[in-house]
Design brief:
Layout (H helix, E strand, L loop, with lengths): L52 H13 L3 H10 L6 H12 L8 H11 L5 H24 L13 H37 L8 H7 L4 H5 L1 E2 L2 E2 L6 H9 L1 E3 L2 H7 L4 E3 H9 L5
Antiparallel strand pairs: 1-2, 3-4
Helix pairs in contact: 3-5, 5-6, 6-7, 6-11, 7-9
């Protein structure tokens, strides 16, 4: 649930969702308040200087104090995604106030865009993934008793924290792979919707055409990793192929009348509904 990149949110990658933990009496592992990568935050627009750890934590605390569930729901509805209030609150807690997920500038910025009415399909795609991930993590918790939000993490011993992180990683990987399917189902629907059906789109093609490697690297199709699937080369070829777009669709998406499918997918991801 953290990713570096320039396209608006942090992908759920198995190895990047946490910063390093050294648990010598809390030396680096400061519980849910010590997880961030300062360098990836860049400059604080309020000061013109690089974000400091205290400023990042202050931004996190301020965000958690705001009740923005209804604003998030309205913006997601505008973008064609229905997420219930409980899940929205759980996503927010997991992303910005739990020990398993780094405080990511990409996630923070995407959340702020959505709750201020400036969201894009890309931002809704992010929430589609997170919502699916939360549902699966809750299912895992119901089955195993594991609390993926780590609500007692700050009170755990060093050994208990290590066990929690190991359990979290296993649950996270299972939930993440399932969430990729729902994320790319959503993106495929949006491509077909915004092109008026001129560009038929499957989940697998959407994942391959997405310029991010997240789906290609981590999605499982028919029981095998996507990159090992017998149809992978065909999906790649299709993503690079060109399609004819009607003039209104091309204008809406800012594309020429003939465009690569990969470019159509990227234009849809960046689209902001009126």
């Amino acid at each position: 649930t953290t990713r570096t990149g320039d396209d608006g949110y942090a992908p759920n990658t198995p190895d990047s969702h946490r910063t390093g933990h050294t648990d010598a009496d809390g030396a680096r592992d400061r519980g849910r308040r010590g997880l961030y990568d300062q360098h990836k935050w860049g400059d604080n627009p309020a000061t013109g200087n690089p974000w400091t750890p205290d400023e990042i934590d202050a931004a996190r605390r301020k965000l958690m104090e705001v009740n923005d569930t209804n604003r998030m729901r309205r913006e997601l509805d505008r973008l064609g995604l229905d997420v219930d209030p409980e899940t929205i609150r759980s996503i927010k807690k997991y992303l910005f106030d739990s020990p398993g997920i780094a405080m990511s500038h990409d996630n923070y910025s995407a959340w702020r865009r959505l709750t201020s009415g400036r969201g894009s399909v890309m931002d809704a795609q992010f929430i589609a993934h997170e919502a699916a991930e939360q549902r699966r993590l809750r299912e895992i918790g119901n089955r195993t008793g594991f609390d993926h939000l780590g609500r007692n993490y700050d009170d755990m011993s060093t050994a208990q924290r290590a066990t929690w992180r190991s359990d979290h990683d296993r649950a996270y990987l299972e939930a993440h792979r399932a969430a990729l399917e729902e994320e790319y189902d959503f993106l495929a629907r949006k491509v077909e919707e915004l092109t008026n059906g001129q560009v038929p789109m499957s989940r697998s093609l959407a994942a391959v055409a997405d310029r991010r490697a997240e789906g290609r690297d981590h999605m499982v199709v028919d029981g095998v990793p996507m990159a090992d699937h017998s149809n992978y080369a065909r999906w790649q070829e299709r993503a690079e192929s060109r399609v004819e777009l009607g003039s209104r669709v091309a204008e809406k998406l800012g594309l020429p009348s003939t465009a690569r499918i990969a470019d159509v997918v990227e234009a849809v991801r960046r689209y902001r509904a009126d």
